[in-house]
Amino acid sequence: MASARAASGAEMGARVIDQLLTEEFFQDHWERVPLHLRAADGGKDVNHLPELLSVDDVADIIGKAGPSLKMFKHNEPSRLRSFLLAYLDGTSMIVNQADRHNQVILEFCRSLADHFFHHVFAVLYLTPPGSQAVRLHNDDQDVFLFQVWGSKRWTVRNAPQLLPYTEEMLGKDCPVPENLVGPPLLEFTMEAHDVLYIPRGYLHEAATGEEASLHITFTIPTSDYCWGVNLVKHLTGQLRSKQLPGPQRSLCQSSLAPRGAAGPAVLDDAALDEKLQELLGSLASQLSAEDVVRSFEQRMERTNDNQGRQFSMMTGGERGRPTRPPRVTEDTRVRLMPGVSCHCEPDSEMAVFSRSGDGQHLEMPILKSSSGLVCALTSKPQWVRDLPTKDPFQRLCVLQLLLEHGVLQLFLKGPEDVPEDPDEPLR
C-alpha cells in the first residue's frame, strides 16, 4: 500500500526527519560523504515538493522576489529586466531566501531547524533547457537539494578542503584552479522526487538537457555554526562591550592609523604588545563554552524571528501592500482578443498577430518550443493548463507576454462567465 502524501511543508519535514535524517545518515554522510537518494529508492517518501509546489507557486515566488532574484545565462548576469523575457532567452532564475515567499518552503525550513539545524533557508533554482545556472564551485554550507520537476545532470567532485570557511570557497568569483579539480566522484541525473545531499566543501556543478529543471536547495549555514566563527563573534561582542575596563575599551576603540584625531598617544611596539596581551588575557579568563553557545543561540533566535517577519511582509501580511495586477495562471482561461487572429507555423520562430478592425500587425519572435502553444490559441476560451507545452513555466511566460502586448484576453472566473458579446472588455 502506498504511503499517504505529505499535505504541508511541516509534514514533509517530519517525514524527512524520520526517514532520511537518521543516525545512520549522520554517521555515514553528514559533513563527510555526498548522498544521492533516487525517487525509486526512497526519494518519493521524503520529497513531496512535486505535489506541494505548483507552477503558479513558482511564478509567484519569482514574481515577488525583488532583489532576491538573480538571473544568470552562461554564468553571466542577464541584462534583461523582465524575468519573463529572460527565461525565454535561456536565463536561469535563482531566488535566494525563497522561504520568505512561500508557506510550504518556510514550514519545511522551520521543521528542520527546530529539530536539528538551528536555522535553515532555501534557494530556488529554475533552469531552462540546455542551460547551466552556475559553474563548478563549492559552498561553505551543507545543502539538501530536492528536485521538483524536470531533470538535471549533476557532477560531484572532491572537496579540496573539507569544511571550508566562507572566504575559502572556490568557483564563486573565478573558475576553480585546475590542479584542485579531481575526477568525478558522482555523475547522475536528478529526476522529480530525487534528493541530493552535498557536504560543505565538495565541488559540484549541474546543467539541463532537453527539458527544464526546478530544484529547491535547503541550506544549513554550517560554517556560521562552527566554533572558530562563533568564538570570533563572541569575542567581538565582548570587545565592543561597555563592561570592559576603561583603558582596555579605549585601546579597542583607538585607530591603527598613527595620528588618529582623537586617539590616545601612540604606543611603541613593546608597550602595545603588553596592552594587547593584557586585553587577551582578560577576555580568555572570562571565556566559557556556555557563554559562546548562549550567544550563538541568541543569534539564531533573532535570525529565525527575522525569517518569520520577512515571510509575513513578502506574502502580504502587512497593511497597505499594493495588489498585483491579474496574471496568467494554470487555473485561468485565455483566448485571442476579439478581432485578433494569429498566424504561426509549427516549429516557427515567428508569430504574426493581426487585428481585423484596423489592419494592424504585430510580429513577435518566439521559441520553436513555443510554436505549438501559440498555434493552439483561438477565439475560444481555453484553460491554460490544457494548452500544449513541454515546459509549463515557459507557457506562463509566453501567455503573460501576449497578455501584456494586448493580443490575449484573460478570464479570471468560471466558464459560465464567458461573455456572449465578443467585444466585451477584458475581465
TrEMBL record:
This protein's record includes keyword Metal-binding: yes
A Pfam family: JmjC_2
Cofactor binding comment, as recorded: Binds 1 Fe(2+) ion per subunit.
InterPro entries reported for this sequence: JmjC_dom (IPR003347), NO66-like (IPR039994)
SUPFAM superfamilies registered for this protein in UniProt: Clavaminate synthase-like
Cofactor list: Fe(2+)
Protein's UniProt name: Bifunctional lysine-specific demethylase and histidyl-hydroxylase
Biological function: Oxygenase that can act as both a histone lysine demethylase and a ribosomal histidine hydroxylase.
Residue stretches making up the JmjC domain: 95-239
Subcellular location, principal: nucleus
Keywords: Dioxygenase, Iron, Metal-binding, Nucleus, Oxidoreductase, Transcription, Transcription regulation
EC nos: 1.14.11.-
A Gene Ontology cellular-component term: nucleolus
Location of region: Disordered: 308-328
Family, similarity comment: Belongs to the ROX family.
GO MF entry, a single one: histone H3K4 demethylase activity
UniProt subcellular location: Nucleus
Taxonomic placement: Eukaryota, Sar, Alveolata, Dinophyceae, Suessiales
Domain of life: Eukaryota
